[in-house]
Design a protein that fits this description.
Layout: E1 11-13, H1 17-27, H2 33-51, E2 57-63, E3 68-74, E4 77-84, H3 88-97, E5 102-103, E6 105-110, E7 117-123, E8 131-136, E9 139-140, H4 144-155, E10 160-168, H5 170-179, E11 184-190, E12 193-194, E13 200-201, H6 207-212
Parallel strand pairs: 1-11, 4-5, 4-6, 4-8, 8-10, 9-10, 10-11
Antiparallel strand pairs: 2-3, 6-7, 12-13
Helix pairs in contact: 1-2, 2-3
Length: about 220
Amino acid sequence: MKKTVADSGKLTVIQHPVVARDLTILRNKETDTAHFRMAMGRIATILAYTALKDLPLRQVQITTPVTETTGFEIDTEIIIVPILRAGLSLVNALLDFIPDASVGHLGMYRDETTHEPVEYYSNLPQNMEDAIVLLVDPMLATGGSAEDAIRILKQKGALTIRFISLICAPEGVNHIMKNNPDVSIITASLDEKLNEDAYIVPGLGDAGDRYFGTL
């Protein structure tokens, strides 16, 4: 039985035919690395579009080949922070969408015995309080790594954090919403549950290994 999410006010699950098709490609264990990467890139672009659809704009005057007109520029800084290493799989597609974004890095891994996150690296931009921070990781399972990453970002001054993930488990979503109700979650799928090994069901396996070809 699929577990429920207590409060979905900060959760956005994208409903789109292209996303449904590409999630099928990602879930299929027969999908090779090249097609896995392409499908992930397409979904990441749609996730970025959704996460940034309310960006503030400022007016600018430009001259076209025909006349002068009013145009727009994005009126805030955007920082992308992947949780290493799997989060790197989403970065290139996000940068294609917002090429002037800054990129920070957080290195964390899940202890296979305790299922708890362990931090091993941090390199983040300055002035995070003035930016929209996109924290990215393809899988939100227990929520432990995401919560630790959010804590670090807030300690560095981040005020607006949006978590982007391909697939979420209800347990992870509930964990984030309970402890960080100010953080929005944007995902392509809310899956059924976690199994006894804390893997998402039905999931897609290890996203980092499948993307980087290290199975």
